[in-house]
UniProtKB/TrEMBL annotation:
Lineage of origin: Bacteria, Pseudomonadati, Pseudomonadota, Betaproteobacteria, Burkholderiales
Bilayer topology: Peripheral membrane protein
Protein name: GTPase Era
Pfam families for this protein: KH_2, MMR_HSR1
Binding site for GTP: 23-30, 70-74, 131-134
Length: 304
């Protein structure tokens, strides 16, 4: 076991700080968060706007505790109540952190990226994370692109990487460390997230929902945990998938209930690994027309 991963707390001053991960939808923020934490704490999907809550992931290495905030991708395409809520989450996340990781796809910078970048105060230390480096064919073109990015914002560091490469993720952690203040850790050394098992259960079900419905199901679907009971090493979970139309309900259920069954099976298997417990999972689907544009319903569904 390497010394920085050992159980013994370091002697001398500790470092601890908040790091926001921001960017437009689908640039790989949740994948990066999971890689930085070393375990899955945020759901990932090819569908844009998968992350809807401010999710805290924690990684403690050596004398440093990194507390990451994974934000929703800033929404510029729609203006319903859900998106306004998500955008408020992004803004509040950026305002109270020690460092911002601004994530873009390496070699790309579009209007949606620019709108997110405009939200970051110029005096907030910000690292440009050029993600998905493995997809760049002509690496020589990155140099002029990086130069143009420096002209857009006073970034303190440039870090081209692929979130799927552990060595590159470790290098990012080393670059981040000096920007975190010297102060006592906020969490236990082995903590991974400040979210409850109940919250993680809803996120895992939602991830499987989006992955298995693909582009058929609009993003305005969510998951409510109706029951979460612990009986020793058994978790009894009942969850309701909320959709906006009867046609969406049919998509989720699938022919003969096959798709809903598969969503439940995959979610249960992942939860058993994540929680290290036996999981009994029941799923229902309900139609709640207009929920994504109803402020009261959004609050009742847990949106901040």
């Amino acid at each position: 076991m390497p010394p920085e991963e050992s159980g013994a707390a370091p002697e001398g001053p500790q470092r601890c700080g908040l790091i926001a991960i921001v960017g437009r939808p689908n640039v790989g923020k949740s994948t990066l968060l999971n890689a930085l934490v070393g375990q899955k704490v945020s759901i990932t999907s090819r569908k844009a706007q998968t992350t809807r809550h401010r999710i805290t992931g924690i990684r403690t290495l050596g004398d440093t505790q990194y507390v990451f905030v994974d934000t929703p991708g800033f929404q510029t395409r729609h203006s319903n109540a859900l998106n306004r809520t998500l955008n408020r989450t992004v803004l509040s996340s950026v305002s109270d952190v020690d460092l911002v990781l601004f994530v873009v796809e390496a070699g790309r910078f579009g209007l949606d990226d620019a709108k997110v970048l405009a939200l970051i105060p110029p005096d907030k230390p910000t690292v440009l994370v050029a993600n998905k480096l493995d997809k760049v064919v002509r690496r020589a073109e990155l140099a002029p692109w990086l130069k143009s990015m420096q002209e857009r914002h006073p970034f303190v560091e440039f870090v081209p990487l692929s979130a799927k490469r552990p060595d590159q993720v470790k290098r990012l952690l080393e670059i981040v460390r000096p920007y975190l203040p010297e102060q006592p850790w906020w969490y236990e050394e082995d903590a991974l997230t400040d979210r409850s098992e109940r919250f993680l259960a809803s996120e895992i079900v939602r991830e499987k929902l989006f992955r298995l419905t693909g582009d058929e199901l609009p993003y305005s679907s969510t998951v409510m945990i109706e029951k979460f009971e612990e009986e020793g090493r058994l978790r009894r979970i009942a969850a309701t998938i909320i959709v906006e139309r009867e046609s969406h309900k049919a998509i989720v259920i699938g022919d003969g209930g096959e798709r809903l069954k598969r969503i439940g099976t995959e979610a249960r298997q992942e939860l058993e690994k994540l929680l290290d417990a036996k999981v009994f999972l029941e799923l229902w689907v309900k139609v709640r027309s207009g929920w994504a544009d109803d402020e009261e319903r959004l609050r009742s569904y847990g949106y901040e």
